[in-house]
Design brief:
The complex is a heterodimer of chains A (196) and B (172). With 196 residues, chain A is mainly alpha-helical. Chain A has helices spanning 2-23, 27-64, 67-82, 91-105, 108-124, 134-144, 152-160, 170-195. The chains are: A mainly alpha (196), B mainly alpha (172).
Chain lengths: 196, 172
């Protein structure tokens, strides 16, 4: 689905820019944009690679030394309050807390497998397979707000363009993630209650 | 020194000390993680090339500036800068696309400007909603997401509005 959307997006972007650009007489700008974009993309990847490597290395230490599991243990009782009817030491809660911990620490690679496992476990808890239940909806919503401690790539970009404080905005974004996630969970619970 | 500046050195110190205390093979772990981090960054290149092409062409055609002039007066009341609209549109679709837009915004307006801060806060407090939905709902049998997607997109708009407010607070 995403591939199709991306294909459509890029085609639309190119079509709109060529038509609009030619009508407003910007053919030379368009041509140089084409030849600039490859270098630009490569520069972006180069500046990201080093920092994503360093952050990935640090987080791997957290994972291997067991810090990751300890954090998961702290989060699971909290999660039981959010996901109703799921037992504290069930496989579902374990997968959910592994996923949330990975997201918070910015371990994207570790988040997806545990996320998929959590979806399957949550579905097992339910009898009907036709419609997503409240718990499944809440879990996907938790993964749709970017709750993360340190957004490495954004800090890298801010630094690249000489920000005085590359990490300065992160407390605000963490606070906003929390507020929006809480609002979304509250909305799901309200809708769920009205249906019953 | 602000909290945000102290936080990262402290987290890193904590992780290294914890690993050392648990007698873990810290350096091997670090190298393994660094390898996979570098690999995932390099794997971004093809997607980034495609999206950079589209976005640079849009920028060069002048249509973005045109749209910004039209939308600005409408958006002014919400406080969300019209220059960040491309980011708002691409954020739920693609992570590399938002990085590309973010880079262009930083290059043009500086990361510490109101536009730069709003964009940073918005980008770091949101996710690629459509990608997440397709992967997670693709993994289970329940195909009807119900009201989940509208709710997630509504949350995205709420985040955009809050980001604009937070950027003003941050500037003081």
């Amino acid at each position: 689905m995403v591939r199709v959307i991306l294909g459509l997006t890029i085609t639309a972007m190119v079509a709109i820019s060529v038509i609009y650009g030619l009508c407003t007489g910007r053919a030379s700008e368009l041509t140089s944009a084409v030849f600039d974009s490859g270098t630009q993309a490569l520069n972006l990847v180069l500046s990201l690679t080093g920092n994503l490597a360093i952050w990935g290395g640090i987080m791997e230490i957290a994972k291997d030394s067991g810090l990751y599991d300890s954090i998961s243990k702290i989060t699971s009782p909290l999660l039981c309050k959010v996901f109703r009817g799921i037992k504290k030491d069930s496989k579902a809660i374990k997968a959910i807390s592994a996923n949330i911990t990975a997201n918070i620490l910015g371990l994207g690679n570790a988040a997806t497998p545990s996320g998929i496992e959590a979806m399957k476990e949550l579905e097992k808890e339910e009898v009907s397979h036709k419609r997503a239940t409240d718990n499944i909806v809440i879990f996907v919503l938790l993964n749709s707000t970017g709750l993360s401690l340190i957004p490495t790539s954004i800090a890298t970009l801010r630094l690249k363009y000489s920000s005085i404080n590359p990490t300065g905005t992160f407390i605000y974004s963490a606070a906003i993630s929390l507020i929006v996630t809480a609002a979304e969970i509250a909305a799901v619970k309200l809708i769920g209650r009205r249906k019953r | 020194m602000s909290i945000s500046q102290i936080l990262i050195p402290l987290i890193i110190l904590g992780i290294f000390l914890y690993g050392f205390g648990k007698k873990a093979d810290t350096f091997s772990s670090f190298c393994r993680g660094a390898k996979s981090g570098a690999k995932s960054a390099l794997e971004l290149l093809p997607t980034l090339c495609g999206l950079t092409l589209g976005i640079s062409m849009l920028k060069a055609s002048g249509i973005i500036d045109g749209l910004v002039t039209v939308i600005s007066p409408i958006l002014e009341k919400t406080g969300f800068p019209a220059e960040c609209i491309p980011l708002l549109i691409i954020r739920p679709i693609s992570g590399s696309g938002s990085l590309t837009v973010l880079e262009q915004l930083f290059g043009e307006y500086h990361p510490d400007s109101t536009i730069g801060n709003t964009a940073s806060i918005f980008a770091s407090s949101t996710e690629t909603v459509l990608y997440t939905f397709s992967i997670y709902f693709g993994a289970i049998k329940a195909k009807k997401a119900g009201y989940a997607l509208p709710l997630a997109l509504l949350g995205l708009l709420l985040t955009a509005w809050l980001s604009a407010i937070a950027a003003k607070l941050y500037a003081g």
